[in-house]
UniProtKB/TrEMBL annotation:
<comment type="similarity">
    <text>Belongs to the sideroflexin family.</text>
</comment>
<keyword id="KW-0496">Mitochondrion</keyword>
<dbReference type="GO" id="GO:0006865">
    <property type="term" value="P:amino acid transport"/>
</dbReference>
<keyword id="KW-1133">Transmembrane helix</keyword>
<feature type="transmembrane region" description="Helical">
    <location>
        <begin position="253"/>
        <end position="270"/>
    </location>
</feature>
<feature type="transmembrane region" description="Helical">
    <location>
        <begin position="93"/>
        <end position="118"/>
    </location>
</feature>
<keyword id="KW-0813">Transport</keyword>
<keyword id="KW-0029">Amino-acid transport</keyword>
<feature type="transmembrane region" description="Helical">
    <location>
        <begin position="179"/>
        <end position="200"/>
    </location>
</feature>
<dbReference type="InterPro" id="IPR004686">
    <property type="entry name" value="Mtc"/>
</dbReference>
<dbReference type="GO" id="GO:1990542">
    <property type="term" value="P:mitochondrial transmembrane transport"/>
</dbReference>
<dbReference type="GO" id="GO:0005743">
    <property type="term" value="C:mitochondrial inner membrane"/>
</dbReference>
<feature type="transmembrane region" description="Helical">
    <location>
        <begin position="146"/>
        <end position="167"/>
    </location>
</feature>
<keyword id="KW-0472">Membrane</keyword>
<feature type="transmembrane region" description="Helical">
    <location>
        <begin position="282"/>
        <end position="306"/>
    </location>
</feature>
<keyword id="KW-0812">Transmembrane</keyword>
<dbReference type="Pfam" id="PF03820">
    <property type="entry name" value="SFXNs"/>
</dbReference>
Length: 337
């Protein structure tokens, strides 16, 4: 993100009001815009140069070109490291990376091998995305990464296979209801394992804490811009880490809900029509199309649920931060996405 580039002058956080849900949704739509993936290395360097010139005071006002540069930088660079996130694991590639996997999990009539294969593939992708976009102020060891991966895969496969075996045994349900519930089994597996995946992959943050910073007054911001004041971390907070990881896990569930629920329910209804019965080869294209259309809208709605750069009262954190907070007793931290 732009905060990782050199310069003391901060860019406006967004073109939109991030204190409101719809403002964050519009901002998230920019960060997750797949068109930013088409930016060449030269284009990224140009965007970074423009943002740096603004932060160093050589560009005085925000312009449409500078807003575009900020969008490219924010969707490409990690806010803690300043390095590009590996392309398949960026939020701007989230819909594309998950499309094939989600379509595979929602394929009607999967056997045990198919369920296991797609759940393992999905959790592998989740591990990569969660690790690439996590708060990097606390390092995650390789052994912890491997352990978390196998626990997440085990959880998702257990839920998927368990529910898949349970649904046919529900004798009081009609055949149509059993079909509908069967189509929702992947959602239960993805939602539960997805949330667990976030906690496992970012468990080190909860155990060690993440960096928190004081919220600056307008006068302090001016001092930072002219170089007379340097802002350093107040320390690591476990309470902030629990909030950050918990909100990220919830946003994953919010994102999975419409994607894993709406397409299979719509497809069940469409499969009852004569048109689709006569064209069984259209089931897969329709499934993929429904997933893609739902994903495009669902991701910004889920990402906008919570601010990425979050400000909270220092009183909600450990006592060591109570007397060291910034403006109005507030501190802030990077939640991760």
């Amino acid at each position: 993100m732009s905060s990782a580039l050199p310069g003391n002058r901060d860019l406006p956080a967004s073109q939109y009001d991030l204190s409101t849900y719809w403002g964050r949704v519009k901002h998230s739509a920019g960060i997750s815009d797949p068109r930013t993936l088409l930016t060449s290395p030269t284009g990224l360097d140009h965007a970074k140069k423009l943002v740096t010139l603004y932060k160093q005071g050589e560009i005085k006002e925000m312009t449409p070109e500078l807003w575009t540069a900020k969008k490219i930088v924010d969707s490409t660079l990690h806010p803690d490291t300043g390095k590009p996130v590996f392309l398949p694991f960026r939020m701007s590639c989230f819909v594309i990376s998950n499309l094939v996997v989600t379509a595979g999990m929602l394929t009607p009539g999967l056997g045990t091998a198919g369920i296991l294969g797609w759940q393992i593939t999905n959790q592998s992708l989740n591990v990569a995305i969660n690790n690439a976009n996590a708060n990097k102020s606390t390092a995650l060891s390789t052994s912890t990464l491997i352990q978390s991966y196998f626990m997440a895969v085990g959880a998702s496969c257990t839920v998927a296979l368990g529910l898949n075996a349970l649904v046919p045994r529900l004798k009081r349900l009609s055949p149509a209801a059993k079909i509908t519930l069967g189509r929702l089994v992947p959602f239960a597996a993805v939602a539960s394992a997805g949330a667990l995946n976030v906690f496992l992959m970012r468990g080190e943050e909860i155990r060690q804490g993440i960096d928190v910073f004081p919220v600056l007054s307008e006068e302090e911001k001016r001092k930072v811009e002219d170089g007379s004041l340097e802002i350093k971390s107040l320390g690591k907070s476990k309470s902030a880490a629990k909030l950050a990881v918990g909100e990220t896990a919830l946003s994953r569930v919010l994102n999975a809900t419409p994607i894993m629920v709406l397409p299979p329910l719509v497809l069940v209804r469409l499969q009852r029509t004569n048109w689709l019965k006569q064209r069984p080869r259209m089931v897969m294209p329709l499934n993929v199309g429904l997933i893609f259309a739902t994903s495009i809208f669902a991701l910004p709605l889920a990402l906008g649920a919570f601010p990425q750069r979050q400000a909270v009262s220092a009183k909600t954190l450990e006592p060591e931060f109570w007397e060291r907070a910034g403006k109005d007793g507030m501190v802030e931290f990077n939640r991760g996405i």
